[in-house]
Design goal:
- It is a single chain.
- This protein is mostly helical and 150 residues long.
- The protein has a domain at 20-102 and 130-146.
- Helix content is 63%, strand content 3%.
- It has six helices and two strands, in the order αααααββα.
- It has helices spanning 9-19, 26-56, 60-65, 68-71, 76-103, 133-146, and strands at 107-108, 111-112.
- The protein has a two-stranded antiparallel sheet.
- Helix 1 packs across helix 2 (26-56) and helix 2 packs antiparallel against helix 5.
- The radius of gyration is 20 Å and the shape is elongated.
Length: 150
């Protein structure tokens, strides 16, 4: 399904400046911007998860099972942390799913192969190992955090 949109000359100029380093196809540029935004959100959600895991010395699942908010008297801090943590966990799952959808579509002419039909995708080139998107993104996030880039 194609949709026509109108954008200002200023936005076109910005898209062109982004496209110059990767592609001149507007769809590819927009796809890259979407992927970057999903990755940014995923890194933020993972950081929140990591901080809460370190703070409470347990996973969110255990935090819920042990009813930590109740154990802490439903304090504002623990309730706020629980809500932020739950949002982060949901966000991680959502962003990973969205990235998988984008990664699972390969362009073939003007058609995109639907996600969930791997027999329509090209195999991994010899010498490369297949890697789940979440593993790849975790490694990228670790590198970015270790180098104070996020």
């Amino acid at each position: 399904m194609n949709t026509t949109i109108s954008v200002s000359p200023e936005i076109i100029q910005h898209l062109d400046s982004i496209a110059s380093w990767e592609t001149t196809d507007i769809n590819d540029t927009l796809r890259s911007l979407i992927v970057f935004e999903y990755q940014r959100r995923l890194a933020r959600y993972r950081l929140t998860d990591r901080q809460m895991t370190q703070k409470y010395k347990m996973s969110f699942e255990i935090f819920e099972v042990q009813k930590m908010t109740q154990q802490h008297g439903y304090s504002w801090e623990v309730e706020s942390n629980a809500m932020a943590w739950e949002t982060a966990i949901d966000g991680i799952h959502t962003m990973e799913a969205q990235l998988a959808k984008l990664a699972g579509k390969e362009k073939n002419g003007d058609n995109l192969h639907p996600f969930g039909q791997p027999h329509l995708h090209e195999p991994t080139p010899e010498g490369m190992s297949p890697q789940p998107i979440h593993q790849f993104l975790t490694e990228v996030e670790t590198i970015l955090l270790e180098n104070d880039l996020i």
